[in-house]
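Everyone, describe these structure tokens:
***
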Amino acid sequence: MNTNPFFNRPSLLRWLCLLAFLGTQPKVNGDNSDASIPNVSTSVSTSDGLLGKGEQVYRESCESCHGTSGQGVPDSYPDALVGDATIGELTKLISDTMPEGKPEECVGEDAAAVAAYIHHSFYSEAAQVRNRPPRIGLARLTGNQLRQSLSDLYSHFDGTREPSASRGIKGIYFDGDRWKNEKKKIERVDHTLQFDFGHESPGEGISPKSFYIYWEGGLKVDVTGRYEIVVRSTCSFQMNFGKLDREFIDNHVQSGDKTEFRQSLVLTAGRVYPFKIDFIQRERKTELPPARFSLSWIPPDGVEQIIPNQNLVPNSGPGVFSLQTPLPPDDRSYGFERGIAVNRQWDDSTTAAAIEFAKICSDELWPIYKDRKKKEANGNREILKAFLGEVLEVAFRGPLDDSLTQMYIDRQLERAEDDSEAIKRVLLLSLKSPRLLYPLADGERSFSQRSANRLALTLYDSLPSDKWLIQLVDEDKLSSEEQVRGAAKRMLNDDRVHAKMRECLYEWLNLKHLNEVTKDQEAFAGFDKDLFCDLRDSLNAFLDEVVWGESSDFRQFFTADWAFTTPRIAEYYGDAWKPVGESQSPLSRTSANSQLRHGLVTHPFLMSGLAYHDSTSPIHRGVFLIRYMLGRTLRPPNEAFTPLSPDLHPDLTTRERVALQTSPESCQVCHSKINGLGFALENFDAVGRYREMERSKPIDSSGAYQARDEQEIRFRNSAELAEYLASSPDAHRAFVSRVFQHFVKQPAAAYGSAKLDELTSQFVRSGYNVRDLLVEVAVVAAMTQENSPSKEE
């Protein structure tokens, strides 16, 4: 407990709220008039005279509590003075509150001078980078990077598939209960797998009493997590999954009344899992069962649904490995996922992962390799040594020298009694090696090899396993910026990049916590989990279309007047959400509607998630916009905030109620930023339906925002807010920063103090092209190799 009598003073709460967004601990508040604050902006001159005067004031009045460089003083105010408030905002704050107990002593020019000094010397982002330049930090693989790396290590041997825009499942229909070419009657691509043939024929020329259907294709996975695959069949069937000869569910002999079969497993985003199904209706003396079949899934945080067309691919492709070993969560204290903690939990999980991969390597990859090479080598041991050498070259991201070959392969082969044991010994040793787990520790590799390593890590979260990429390394064709840029552009077509971009956008929109949203069923009857999952699918389709569509224009995130819908969404949200034309897919595009839709900002998935169960929340919406869309610093309030119940003020609108509760001066320093953004979305209720009235009063959706350059932006409604977000330098910079951090997992400033500004300027010049931004981020990560990574201090 703090014994300082100051902490018992009533002014503490006001001061806590006042400084919440500045990133510092409180001092005693004063009560000065705004009339004493000069008009100072971020463009204020930082001449030696002004900074000198500011430093003098700081030393005399501030240093004892905040430290020589704003680092904080343990017994007074330990938090550092850092943040993104403008010089003008700092000036007002200082004029109102400093020094403790005597704020009238630092006003006017003195307040402006000390604000400029603090901002220039240690407070601003530029000052922080200048005083403590970030460095490329050595980090282990994150859980997802390990999962992806092992999947690609497997794919290197069993083959990789080319991306395909085709959707559906290939079906071959036979008359009779087995495959006979002369009995083949139908060959087509089925939209989904949901059939109720009853006692009828599945197609022309096929007897309803005896038929065989062979389905083959791939399951495209967009999100990593645990899935439950659900098959319902009244007839006998077999299903192989992950590899066409890998058994998954066997109901070859239908017995009893069991018609539902479930299997749960972890699937990895960006992968297409091959599968095949043999479905057989056999003629029998007893009464035939009605022929029904369906293939459903329950995706992570989702509800059961027939696997949709957009997740089915009509060609099966090579086998895929998906790690089932649970991996611990990664460190997120940097604001993005990093592989930092190396502890017992991480060590145990990597050991289990190595054992799991070693088994599948022995069972599946080794037989494939041995069969391919049996005519090229003298003896099984020579083939095995070559196989293990290739495994390690891919895992270690480059060639093996003699010492590594001897340590990791030769010694293990000498001690192993059979092939299986040898493979497990080598894999357990190598997959626990820092050469795999620490991907940037590759300073001895060639420049082209390191470029490939960084490209794969940045865009795939993986290691370079594709044959074409390895060939570029062998030919030393990844040593120039243009060569690297060309490779990055080719990589963008890969499903792995699309999956990683989806994850990036979810972090940008702070969606990972929105797994389930419930609403008051009296006020919002019919808003249930099924509808919410449809809304999530709708938003996902919108995000994918903006990024991977023809223009890839960032501004469409905010200006698009179209969306994607389902029958369930259209029924709940009305005519504006009906699809355009006829579509076999449950997910269809809507017509344009400039009143109801402003890109993702007014999408019902987001609006319902940023609201209470019975009312809107301008505060949640405003905090989301300022933190995530505009990239501004805004720390959580230091005390719990309980919203006023609508029942206490039945005559007030939500805007009036929030304005009343946040009206004290102690709240306004933050809520003057938050409320003005959140109020602009008040036309959209707690489930994202458009409205013009609340409690018999017209909605007031006017709002405002003060940009980093202190320009005051005012908007009358959500349309003008969306237009501003599309053109805002703050929003552009926030998006570029988020993309860089998510893909590279390092701060942009570690690659140069001006790198974020350079990338943002390049982004603007490209016409806000998101795909071009991904390429340039990958180029920066790949080409910055002159300094070997070192641990951050």
User: Anything to note?
Assistant: The two ends are 31 Å apart (CA to CA).
